[in-house]
Amino acid sequence: MWKKTIGYYVCIGCICLSHYSGLGLLFHLDFVRSLSDAWYYFWLAIATACHVALLTFVIYKHKEKLIIVKPQFKWSYLGYSVAGFVMNLLWNALATPILPHGQNQNAINEVLQSIRGAALFWGMWIILGILTPIWEELIYRGVVMTALKRFQRFRLDLVVSASLFSMGHIVQFGWSTTDFILYFVPGLILGWVFRKTNRIYYSMATHVAWNSFLALLYTLSQR
What we know:
Keywords: Hydrolase, Membrane, Protease, Transmembrane, Transmembrane helix. The chain has 223 residues and is an all-alpha fold.
């Protein structure tokens, strides 16, 4: 059993390494960057989707850590998902006048302002709006929180998951306490939704809805 568990986490680690480092190296190669913006973000979306699919498959095949289960609808679960979105909205309203814009968000805005048309569709709506939230929920809630489930009475699963979620958004820009707090709270909120529903789909729905809402606000602000 322990060999199977170790193999599972090794597979997860390799997929994460490929996603975070491999894609970064591949899409910085000169011949890839010479593509038009539309084709560049199209292929980036395809590569990201492949990583999401592979991660989903590995989690599904590891029965002891199964979180990819048949969707179960309950109004209470939907309520938790909506509550998570509202809490994110309230946190954003509270944090915006107090904390500076995160470096991660500033970097994203710079990229979005430099692309148009199909590239913006693939980059903002598909990658940032859908694929990235699904990937992050599978990793930070599905893998991390499930691995720490035995410690949930101490809320350790929530704290570790939210901390890693926040670090994942700021690590490439260097440490910033305000940036860490900015992303740590949404990580707690999404973890709360996952723990309350015990279904990854509801935290995914909250995360996708939030990122898509931000994409919509950005689109409207450019008109």
